[in-house]
Amino acid sequence: MANPTVLSQPPSAPVFRRSGSDFAELSRRISEAGLMRRRPLYYSLRLGAVALALAGAVAVFLVLGDSWGQLCVAVFAALVFGQLGLAAHDLAHRQVFSRRRPSEAVGLLVADVLLGMSYGWWMNKHTRHHANPNHEGKDPDVSPDILVWSRRQARGARGLPRLVGRHQAVLFFPLLTLEGLNLSVSSFRALRSPSVKRPVLEGTLLVLHFLVYFGGLFSVLSPGKALAFVAVHQGVFGIYLGSVFAPNHKGMPMIEEGTRLDFLRRQVLTSRNVRGGVLVDALMGGLNYQIEHHLFPSMPTPALRRAQDITQRYCAELGVPYHQTGLLASHREALRHLRSVGEPLRAAAR
Predict the structure, then answer these.
(1) Which one of 2, 64, 222, 297 counts the least CB within 10 Å of its CB?
(2) Domain that holds residue 341
(3) Considering only CA atoms, which of 105, 104, 242, 134 is closest in space to residue 183?
(4) Tens digit of pLDDT for each residue in 6-30?
(5) What is the number of domains present in the chain?
(6) Does residue 1 belong to any structural domain of this protein?
(7) 255: which strand partners?
(8) Which of 74, 40, 39 is nearest to 60 (CA)?
C-alpha cells in the first residue's frame, strides 16, 4: 500500500449499503458450527502453562543470584509477560469465563498484580477500540499521542507527534521498548478517571506489583544489574506486545467521521489476518485471526482457525475484501503506512 487508505466514500457506494442481516447470517453459520462454546480445558492448560513458566522464571532468578546471566532470565520473563498480557486480553473479552465476576477477578490478578497494568483502564480502552477500529477520533489506538496514523493527523500535529512523525517508521520499534512503561504509567494516571471503577483496589494492586517487582530485583541484584534487568525485561516485553498488536490494524484503511459502514464491513475492512501456522498462533495468542476476533470478540482462541475458513468464504460470497498476509509482510505494510502518513511532516521540514 503505497498510500494510506481512508474510508470516506459517500453512503451511496454499494459496499456501504449492505443490510445488517449480512452479519446475522455469518453469526448463524458460526453458531451452527459450535464455535462460540466455552473451552475450559484449553484455557486451564494455557493459563497453567503460563503460570508454570512464570514460576520457573522466578525460581531461576533466585538460584542465579547476582549474575549478569539474569539478562537471559529478563528476556524469558518478558515473553512470559507477553503471554500474560494475551491472557488478560482473553479474560477481558470473556473468552475464558462466561460470567463477569470470575473474568474480572482473574483479570485483576493477571493484569494488575502480575503485569502492573490496570485491568479496568485497559478493558475500557480496548472496548472503545473494538467498537470503532481505525476510526479517527473514536479509536484510542489511533489517537495521535506520539505517532500519527493519517495524513490529516500529520498536518495537524504539534509538539512531540510532529517531531517523531517525520521518521516514525524508523522509530517505531525503538519506541516499542517503552510500551511496557507506557502501560504502567497510563494505568496509574487512569486511577483518577471514571473508566476505572475500583481505583482504590486497582491502585493497591498496582503498588503491590511494583513493590514486589523492584523489591525482588534490588534485593537480589546489585543496582547496576537490577537496572539492566529492568531495561531488558521491559524493552523486550514492549517489543513483543507491540509486535503482536501492531499487525492487526496498522496500515489498514482508516475511517473518517461520517462514513457509514455496517458492523461486518467496519470490522473486516479495518482488520488484517496474519498467516503462519501453529507457532504464530501461539506467539500471537490467536490475535493473528484479527478479523474473526473483531467479529466475535468472545470466541475462544482455539475456535478462531475454523472460524477463519467460514468467514473468508462468506466475505467472498458478499464481495467484501478480506486481507490476509504473512507476519513479516504485515509489519512491512504497517511500517510503509507509517512512513507514508508522515510525508507531510517531512515535506514541511524541508
Answers:
(1) 2
(2) 6-349
(3) 242
(4) 564 433 333 433 445 899 999 999 9
(5) 1
(6) no
(7) 7, 135
(8) 74
